[in-house]
Amino acid sequence: MELLHKSDITSLIESDDEDSLFVDPLLDNSQIGEVTLDLRLGYDFLVSSLTRKPFVSVTNSDDDFRSIGSYFQQTRRDIGDKFILYPEQVVLTTTLEYVSLPQNVYIDVLSRSSYTRLGIHMNNMMQPGFRGCVPLELFNHGNNAIELVVGSRICQARFMKLASENEYIGHDRLRKYYGDVRPTVSKADMDDDIEILSKIAKSRD
Questions:
Q1: d(Cα 74, Cα 184) in Å, to the nearest integer?
Q2: What's the mean pLDDT when you consider all of the chain?
Q3: Which of 27, 89, 152, 202 has its CA 20 to 30 A from that of 98?
Q4: How far apart are CA 85 and CA 196, in angstroms?
């Protein structure tokens, strides 16, 4: 496994190979750092909201199950607009950029230091072959509300090259978060093991 540097990232972006790195829009080449690529905050937000139900269920076979999406409210901003992230609030969003990764490169997505110091911590990973606007899960760990500006550089991607290519999408390997250009709520209720474990629990009743 190899950490890609600025020259490697630039070469991949500039390559004509259809399986190379694609980032659009790349508004400023200065987003490409020595070992990372800065990514910007996108337009759309899913904001968690309090409901009368005491918890979010991930077992869709339960009689009182309600969709995970019903716990979120959608809102949209334009470039340069402000979005306020309140303490202990979960907000789902994406990067402004649409990213397509080669089959032998994955990325770690981390909050930029300037935002980590405000109380926002992000740590995500996109598999080789990923396509879509990079999903961001925002959470304010601080005591104060934080102002975010749509289009600002909020996170950075660290590129890792594998020794061989991997098939991200296959006939027997469907992906839950692939090709999305807007934030998507958790699909934990679609995990096969949840259904299996639920059946095991019910068999003991």
A1: 10
A2: 92
A3: 89
A4: 37
Q: By the 8 A CB rule, do 94 and 131 touch?
A: no
Tally of CA atoms within 13 A in the half-sphere of 11 that contains its CB: 6
Query: Which residue type does 14 have?
Result: E
Residues in the chain: 205
Cβ–Cβ under 8 Å, residues 102 and 162: no
CA dist list (Å): 197 to 7, 59, 67, 145, 192: 48, 10, 19, 39, 9
Beta bridge partner(s), residue 123:
110
- Candidates 180, 181, 185, 190; CA nearest to 70 is 185
Q: Among this protein's residues, is 137 annotated catalytic?
A: yes
Map 4-25 to HEC letters. Answer: CCHHHHHHHHHCCCCCCCEEEC
Residue 192's pLDDT is 83
By mean pLDDT, which of 6-20, 87-101, 178-192 is the weakest? 178-192
- In the chain, pLDDT over 70 holds for what percent of residues? 96
Mean pLDDT in residue range 2-11: 97
Residue of 18, 97, 137, 165 marked active site:
137
> If DSSP codes are grouped into helix, strand and coil, which group holds residue 189?
helix
Question: What pTM was estimated for this model as a whole?
Answer: 0.90
Residue 54 phi/psi, 5° resolution? -70, -15
